[in-house]
UniProtKB/TrEMBL annotation, chain A:
Part of the ABC transporter complex HmuTUV involved in hemin import. Responsible for energy coupling to the transport system. It comes from Erythrobacter rubeus. Keywords: ATP-binding, Nucleotide-binding, Translocase, Transport. InterPro entries: AAA+_ATPase, ABC_transporter-like_ATP-bd, ABC_transporter-like_CS, P-loop_NTPase. The keyword DNA-binding does not apply. SMART domains: AAA (SM00382). This is ATP-binding cassette domain-containing protein. One of its GO terms (molecular function) is ATP binding. It comes from the Bacteria. Residues 3-231 form the ABC transporter domain.
Automatic annotation (TrEMBL), chain B:
It comes from Erythrobacter rubeus. Keywords: Cell membrane, Membrane, Transmembrane, Transmembrane helix, Transport. The keyword Cell membrane applies. This is Iron ABC transporter permease. The chain crosses the membrane at residues 46-64, 76-96, 102-125, 137-163, 183-204, 228-256, 268-288, 300-319. The keyword Transmembrane applies. It comes from the Bacteria. It is found in: Cell membrane. It is a multi-pass membrane protein.
Length: 247, 326
């Protein structure tokens, strides 16, 4: 059950943002989409979530075109976490999480409780979500996605604006999801986070796929030089690598 | 039915008999002459009308605030009420040209046509702006504001060109909104349309909940933005259009009521629509009964009374928002 982008070309506001990208995302792993600013990362994620109609090419799930799935089916299968979510009202944490059940048209009490427990939100459940700190809100919003029990989790920069401890805790939740068989695709800015915590990477540069595959290969020094224009070397061992910039 | 709905339903049940008895003449059913006629032909239709108009405005306000994710949104933002008012003002000009049998209905009919035109225009604009590329809601709201502004200027033009002082005062008075001298005829127009509009808004309520997390998240939850916008245009069009057709412009109800209701609920838009309808009914019923009782030479217009309450409330709201407690 793969999520596949076939010869995908995307436009936003009349501007071309992605040109003829072919790539696939295996389930049960974390794939990081990385690339310099404006490379088309968020657009690719939106298209994978079925929220941005391709100009040409297709996104396919199990060999079926995403655009042909009914919206509710798509919503049950693909959980999408936008980059910035401003929660509009003083809605309690548990009710925000419950919104994840909307596509299922049920109360889903068990799934909501599981998501609340997984992200240790029990002590916060009655608090208005938008009054929480950035790290707490990020957990609430991820729990909202988890409550829908999607087969795929597509998250746009879920770690941005989180401190180190919260980044690690969120990453470990995503790793648990991948271990349990869900496909996880995340847009990341921080190459070290991608290198240490993702299984695969797709590197976008100026709307094209510059490299893809296991992180060790996709995030090579050569790729970093050609895409970011920076000379850099990885040091350390797998799982705790750091990127050293050379002057 | 949630707690807020129960609270406001009980309040409404208590207010109706009070409002029937209150007025320039306080009715004592045992002694007041013609009590039955006053009640059945004057007070009861007026009370039912107040309930219908208030319920429509309350529900529309709750839906609009949910749709725009903004506590300061108001049903007037779509431009439906000003267009309905423009239609009504046009009837002062053209109504006299119609055969007498139709002329009696010309004002509500013209107002409903105005509301219908606004809805059609909004649907046309929606078809062009909600392409799913984001920014649709903001663009659409601006378009609604432009319709409102255009209708407002045309109404002002109609007033300045009024054929005679009598017509002028008639138009201005009518624009201020009132339920004076209404009958079952107006109830027959407003109640079914408002009821249908509220049902349409209830159909939109789960989608409005999803919008709490923003447009992209809502779409990822399977919400169809075009369907939601369509439901909103029809729901707000029916409730607000019907209200203006029978009562003129009555402001602030749609803005205030959701704020009175919200603290009693879980604050999701879907929990607000029915209680806001009931609370809107209470508010207009109280205001209309109060203007009847106030010892003034002529009855204070309902629209003016509600604006007198509404404007200070709006200010208080703004100050509270600044202090971050909204």
């Amino acid at each position: 059950m793969k999520l596949v982008a076939n010869d995908l070309t995307l436009e936003r506001g009349g501007q071309s943002v992605l040109k003829n990208v072919d790539t696939e995302f295996p389930p049960g792993t974390i794939t990081a989409i990385v690339g310099p600013n404006g490379a088309g990362k968020s657009s690719l994620l939106l298209a994978l979530a079925g929220l941005l109609e391709p100009v040409s090419g297709t996104v396919e799930l199990d060999g079926e075109r995403l655009s042909e799935l009914p919206p509710l089916e798509r919503a049950k299968t693909l959980g999408y976490l936008p980059q910035h979510t401003e929660i509009a009202w003083d809605v309690a944490v548990e009710n925000v999480v419950a919104l994840g059940r909307l596509p299922h048209r049920d109360r889903g009490t068990a799934e909501i409780e599981t998501a609340i427990a997984a992200l240790t939100l029990e002590p916060l459940r009655h608090r208005p979500a938008r009054q929480l700190s950035g790290g707490e809100q990020a957990r609430v919003l991820l729990a909202r996605v988890l409550a829908g029990e999607p087969r795929w989790i597509l998250a746009d920069e879920p770690l941005a604006a989180l401190d180190l401890a919260h980044q690690l805790s969120l990453v470990s939740h995503l790793q648990n999801c991948a271990h349990s068989g869900q496909g996880v695709v995340i847009v990341l800015h921080d190459l070290a986070l991608a290198m240490n915590h993702a299984d695969n990477a797709v590197v976008l540069h100026e709307g094209k796929c510059a490299a893809s595959g296991p992180v060790e290969d996709a995030l090579s020094s050569e790729t970093i030089r050609s895409c970011w224009g920076v000379d850099a070397q990885w040091i350390g061992d797998r799982g705790s690598r750091a990127l050293i910039i050379e002057h | 039915m949630n707690r807020a709905a129960v609270v406001f339903a009980l309040l409404l049940a208590a207010l109706v008999p009070l409002s029937l008895l209150a007025g320039r003449v306080w009715i004592d059913p045992a002694t007041t002459p013609n009590a039955a006629i006053i009640l059945m032909e004057l007070r009861l239709p007026r009370a039912v009308l107040a309930i219908a108009v208030g319920a429509g405005l309350g529900a529309a306000g709750a839906a609009m605030q949910g749709y725009l994710r903004n506590p300061l949104a108001d049903p007037g933002l779509f431009g439906i009420a000003p267009m309905a008012a423009l239609g009504a003002v046009a009837s002062f000009w053209f109504g006299a040209l119609l055969p007498p049998a139709i002329a009696a209905w010309s004002l509500p009919a013209f107002a409903l046509i105005g509301a219908g035109l606004a809805m059609a225009l909004l649907a046309l604009i929606a078809g062009r702006t909600s392409s799913g590329a984001g920014g649709g809601i903001a663009l659409f709201t601006l378009a609604g504001l432009m319709i409102a502004s255009l209708a407002g200027s045309l109404t002002a033009l109609a007033i300045t060109l009024a054929p005679n002082p009598f017509a002028l005062s008639e138009i201005v008075l009518w624009l201020n909104g009132a339920l004076t001298d209404r009958s079952w005829r107006e109830v027959a127009i407003a109640a079914p349309l408002t009821g249908a509009g509220i049902v349409v808004l209830i159909l939109a309520s789960r989608s409005l909940d999803a919008l709490t997390l923003g447009e992209d998240a809502a779409r990822s939850l399977g919400i169809d933005p075009r369907r939601l916008l369509g439901l909103l245009i029809v729901g707000v069009g029916l409730t607000v259009g019907a209200g203006v057709a029978v009562a003129g412009i009555i402001g602030f109800v749609g803005l205030i009521v959701p704020h009175l209701v919200r603290p009693l609920t879980d604050r999701l838009p879907s929990s607000l629509i029915v209680p806001s309808a009931l609370a809107g009914a209470c508010l207009v019923l109280i205001a209309d009964s109060s203007v009847r009782v106030l010892p003034l030479i002529t009855e204070l217009r309902l629209g003016i009374a509600l604006s007198l309450i509404g404007a200070p409330f709006f200010l208080w709201l703004l100050l509270r928002m600044r202090s971050g407690s909204l």
